[in-house]
Amino acid sequence: PRIARVRRVYVLPQFRRRGIAQALMYEIMQAPGFDIMTLCTENLGAAALYEKIGFRRTAVDGDKISYQMSL
User: How far, in Å, CA of 42 to CA of 51, rounded?
Assistant: First the structure.
């Protein structure tokens, strides 16, 4: 399988809670040619977003949470 890894998606504090991160993630998920997308986070707010849009938790190592989604 072709695996894409998402790293460092940020939204400036003054623009948060407006759906921007979700829109960015949906756009990234449309990238052609990949079967699986993975990412990691230590941010609980980001973790909630990733779970909301369909990523499944695959591992927890201390504060680091890993996620995966089949595309």
Answer: 14
